[in-house]
């Protein structure tokens, strides 16, 4: 065990090929492999210090005392792995633009996995860090790496982890993130994906077509074929949202403004001939994949139509790492 505090930083990631369903709920083994882009703009810094004087874990989020059973459960996993019983102080700061509503479990559990394991005296490889982060939140397995990352589904705890696809990108792409609503999601990812696995009549079709999408997007990334990457991204996101519409009970994450932005992105592409493609996760915010050089023009058009929404540009980001507190 380490007596000094350890701080780690991890960035959030946005899936281009979505993870939407678990095979094993406890170990967080997914139904399909997924692929994401890590973003520089949104990240979490987490400091962990084990302290013999504590009778339980003490967790603060953005300087305020916080309770999170997922964090306690995760710390129990770290203690088991390290063979220790000591509790810890965990201080987490989410760096997101004001009222972003993007505070993501991906950056949170990737930063916690790195800081807590090192503070507990473990010296994990990135593969094992990814496996550990996965136990906190599936998407966190991908935030261990920067750039394009694939979470290979595997079949058990040993074989389900993320690998870098292209970590240091020589490609000026990025995402414009439009915050439609920064409030709590209507239905958590965890509950939503479980309902879908159990009830959607389209689920087998999703698995088949997502497997194809993953193969095709990796090829398109290798070929630097932006149009192809964008087309697959948009289509894969819509297929995920179609699962939600087909579940029992059905649900969706769209707000009227989300749909208006999606239509406008399609119009910009078709009428203004600027390549850009949207994706949405378990909430109403719209992320637009585009080239860095096109971002200002897209931003200007969107600002003229949706003056109450800010669109922030995020470049590809780095993987999880240790920093000075
Ligand atoms: C993803 N999303 O691939 C998918 C696509 C949103 C839509 O937020 O239950 O928070 O903790 O493993 O990782 C994934 O949900 O869910 C997610 P858990 P997680 O990014």
TrEMBL record:
Keywords: ATP-binding, Lipid biosynthesis, Lipid metabolism, Lyase, Nucleotide-binding
Superkingdom in the source lineage: Bacteria
GO molecular function (one): diphosphomevalonate decarboxylase activity
Domain annotation Diphosphomevalonate decarboxylase-like N-terminal: ranges: 10-162
InterPro entries reported in the protein's UniProt record: GHMP_kinase_C_sf, Mev_decarb, Mev_diP_decarb, MVD-like_N, Mvd1_C, Ribosomal_Su5_D2-typ_SF, Ribsml_uS5_D2-typ_fold_subgr
Annotated Mvd1 C-terminal domain residues: 175-308
One cellular-component annotation, GO: cytosol
EC main group: lyase
E.C. no: 4.1.1.33
GO BP of this protein: isopentenyl diphosphate biosynthetic process, mevalonate pathway
NCBIfam families reported in the protein's UniProt record: mevDPdecarb
Family: Belongs to the diphosphomevalonate decarboxylase family.
Name under which the protein is recorded: diphosphomevalonate decarboxylase
Organism the protein comes from: Ligilactobacillus aviarius
């Amino acid at each position: 065990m380490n007596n000094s505090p350890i701080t780690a930083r991890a960035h959030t990631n946005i899936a281009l090929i979505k993870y939407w369903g678990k095979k094993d709920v406890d170990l967080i083994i997914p139904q399909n492999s997924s692929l994401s882009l890590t973003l520089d703009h949104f990240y979490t810094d987490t400091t962990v210090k084990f302290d013999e004087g504590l009778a339980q874990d003490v967790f603060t989020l953005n300087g305020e005392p916080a309770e999170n059973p997922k964090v306690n459960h995760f710390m129990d996993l770290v203690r088991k792995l390290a063979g220790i019983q000591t509790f810890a102080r965990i201080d987490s700061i989410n760096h997101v633009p004001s009222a972003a509503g993007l505070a993501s479990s991906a950056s949170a559990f990737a930063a916690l996995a790195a800081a807590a394991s090192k503070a507990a005296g473990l010296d994990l490889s990135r593969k094992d860090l990814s496996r550990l982060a996965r136990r906190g939140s599936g998407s966190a397995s991908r935030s261990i790496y920067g750039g394009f990352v694939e979470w290979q589904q595997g079949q058990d705890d040993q074989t389900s982890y993320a690998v870098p696809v292209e970590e240091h990108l020589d490609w000026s792409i990025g995402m414009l993130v439009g915050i439609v609503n920064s409030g709590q999601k209507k239905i958590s990812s965890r509950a939503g994906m479980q309902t879908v696995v159990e009830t959607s009549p389209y689920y087998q079709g999703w698995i088949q077509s997502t497997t194809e999408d993953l193969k095709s997007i990796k090829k398109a990334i290798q070929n630097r074929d932006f149009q192809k990457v964008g087309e697959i991204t948009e289509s894969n996101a819509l297929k995920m949202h179609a699962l939600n519409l087909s579940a029992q009970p059905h649900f969706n994450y769209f707000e009227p403004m989300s749909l208006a932005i999606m239509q406008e992105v399609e119009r910009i592409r078709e009428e203004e001939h600027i390549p850009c493609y949207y994706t949405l996760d378990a909430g109403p915010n719209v992320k637009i994949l585009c080239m860095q050089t096109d971002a200002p023009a897209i931003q200007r058009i969107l600002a003229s139509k949706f003056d109450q929404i800010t669109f922030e540009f995020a470049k590809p980001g780095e993987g999880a790492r240790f920093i000075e507190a």
